[in-house]
Amino acid sequence: MQVMKAPGRTMDAEAVEWLDAVNWQADGLVPAIAQDAVTGRVLTLAWMNREALLQTERTKEVHYWSRSRRALWRKGEQSGHVQRVREIRLDCDNDAILLVVEQTGGIACHTGRRRCFFQRLEDGAWQTVEPVLKDPKAIYGKE
Amino acid sequence: MQVMKAPGRTMDAEAVEWLDAVNWQADGLVPAIAQDAVTGRVLTLAWMNREALLQTERTKEVHYWSRSRRALWRKGEQSGHVQRVREIRLDCDNDAILLVVEQTGGIACHTGRRRCFFQRLEDGAWQTVEPVLKDPKAIYGKE
What we know:
The structure is a homodimer.
Chain A: H1 11-20, E1 30-36, E2 42-48, H2 50-59, E3 63-66, E4 71-74, E5 83-90, E6 97-103, E7 119-122, E8 125-128, H3 136-140
Parallel strand pairs in A: 1-6
Antiparallel strand pairs in A: 1-2, 3-4, 5-6, 7-8
């Protein structure tokens, strides 16, 4: 999709071009993977709409769309576990995002673990293989 | 979801229990991330249904569900770029899969690049930042 480039176009207009390149699902979302820039660990899979991706690019802090709360969500807004974005990547089909991030506090998961992918399939059962680093009550209790 | 354990239950019955733990979307799919076990690179985001995940676990070769072809798809069945699975992980909401894989040939993408996430956002535009390692015609031409 091409947008005419012209001097003096607004920042919003600029944003349209690269946002339009994304193949948004019918529900206006795409899946977004967050990967730790330092350790390489895959932290989280969450969802973005146009606004979340635009705000992520502008603020350099990752924003998602919460499907359960149906609201824009700045990652870490309650927990302080902000994800500072280093790279934003798009896949070959333009329908998935990869975020390379610096994970504040080393905890990405609401359970207090370093990442959300803490269950591993072993002998036909999901086993929890990563420890809770901080009690969620301590993370969210003061909110 | 609990399934009664009993001696002599079939392999299919065994499979049900851990497959039932997954929060499949209304369309029967979940997103699955493939990460290179050696380099740590995030290679691909694709989709799995129950059969794809079961076949992945049984054969140790990654199977996806192709949304465009509406068919089960053994990764590499045409290209030879098979993904041998080392770990299958599930996230905190049970609605996303992480596969840690050995990528045959070092090429995961149908464009002949090592991975699908080869576009990076730079100054408001998606830039291709990874080279084509093998011409797709050479990969798929003999099929």
